[in-house]
Amino acid sequence: GQGVDEPLSATGFRQADAAGSFLSNVKFTHVFSSDLLRAKQTAAAILGKNRFCKDMEIKYDARLRERKYGVAEGKPLADLKAMAKDAGEQCPSFTPSGGETLDEVRERARDFFEFLCQLAVELEQKEHDKAGAPGRSSGTSGEQFVFPWTNHCSEAETSSEGGRSSTVLDANILVVSHGAYMRNWIGYFVSDLNCTLPENLTKSQLSSVSPNTGVSHFIIKLENGNLLKPKITCVCLNQDSHL
C-alpha cells in the first residue's frame, strides 16, 4: 500500500537490475514513477542500465502510488483476506477501513493516462510548430525504439503496425508503478477504452497482478489529436522473461 514506504529488498534490487538490463536498448522520451521509495529505486535501477537515458529526469507522481489499504497496511495478506471474509466480501474488491475503493484507484489511473495523452498531443503540436524542422522520429534510427519482446511476444505488434512504430512514435514513455494499481489501470484500458489484447492472453492472466518488475507494453494512437478516443493495443502483458 501507501502507508508503509519500505525500500526494495535485496531480491527487489536484483529484479530491478534485471529489468534494466532487459530494457537497456530502449530509448525512452519520458520516465514517470510512483513517488513511493520502492518504485523510485526501481526506476533509478532501470535508467542506470540504459544506454541512452542514464541522465534522464524521473518525474514522480502520486497518482501512480499503490492502492491505499487503510488499516490493513503493514499487515500480512492473510489479515486482509480475513477482514474481507468477516465483511462477507472477497479480495480484491473488499475495501478496508481507510482504504481506497477500486473505483477510486481506477479514477487515479484514468486521470494519469489522460495526462499522458495530453502530453503526447502537445509534443506532436510542438513538432508541427517548428517551421521546416524535421519531426523527432523522421531521420532517426529505428533502433532507438527496439523492444526486446517484439519478435516473440504476441500477434498484437503486427496488427498495430509495430514494425513501423519504431519510426513514428511521438513519445516512448516508461511508467513505474505497483501491482494492484496497474491491474486496475489495465482494467480501465480493457473495459472503458476497448484495448486490443494479444490473442493468446487468458482471462486469468488479464486479472492477475504482475510479478515484480513485470513489463507491459501498450501502443497508444491518438488519431488527429483526439484525446477522447485513444486506440490502444496491448503488445505484451506482465512480461517476465528477464527474471
Automatic annotation (TrEMBL):
Keywords from the UniProt entry: Hydrolase
Top-rank taxon: Eukaryota
GO annotation terms (biological process): negative regulation of glycolytic process; regulation of pentose-phosphate shunt
GO annotations of cellular component type: cytosol
Gene3D superfamilies reported in the protein's UniProt record: Phosphoglycerate mutase-like (3.40.50.1240)
Pfam families reported in the protein's UniProt record: His_Phos_1
Family matches, as CDD domains: HP_PGM_like
An example Gene Ontology molecular-function term: fructose-2,6-bisphosphate 2-phosphatase activity
Positions contributing to substrate binding: R38, E66, R67, K68, Y69
Name of the protein described by the UniProt record: TIGAR bisphosphatase
Organismal lineage: Eukaryota, Metazoa, Chordata, Craniata, Vertebrata
